[in-house]
Amino acid sequence: MKKITPYKTTRNAITAMDNGGRFYNLLTKANDGNVSTSELAKVAGVFSDKQKMVLYLEMSLISLDENSKSRVIKLLSDDLAIACNKYKPQILTPSEAKENGIVSKNAIITGIPEHVKFNSDFNGFIMVPIMIGNIMTMTMIPIADQYDIYKIRDQKSDKDFLIAHTRSSKKLPQQLIKCGGILKELNTEKEEKSPKNKFLETIYYSVL
Known about the structure:
The protein is of the alpha/beta class. It folds into 2 domains: 2-88, no CATH class; 91-207, CATH 2.40.50.140.
């Protein structure tokens, strides 16, 4: 999980993104008026995951007006422009995420997170791939085995939605934030065919 400080000006955004890529990206040049996949990957802190790159892009430009944002978007390489259309995030409140959020899609949710301490009253499971010999299969594990879990609350409706990030010592601040991630399914029972809820696998966040 990475904290993002949204860019305040178009110039700052372009300078950060038109960076020449990592040292082994010999075919990209900094400040050439073109933002390549390798350059966006560097600033987003990923390597080849375009879905996460687009999520970073949207969250980092969220404070700019539409004209300023368009000036940055126009510098993207053709493959990134295609990825932007494919992975454009859903902008949701916690209540909207619960009702209308589309699983496997990027989403940005605003609210105040509260850390959840799991007990026997909560049985949430996720599907994870495992290898058995040369065969990959899916198994269910408790979500708390892999993630730190929070409820993010909608200030207007007072409804909440589950968000999660890979377990670490760093916790989300208990104040108004934007969380960007991928909506995933959550089973409330260990049986695979049980009714599924949703949660946001948080990759980036920014403090408001």
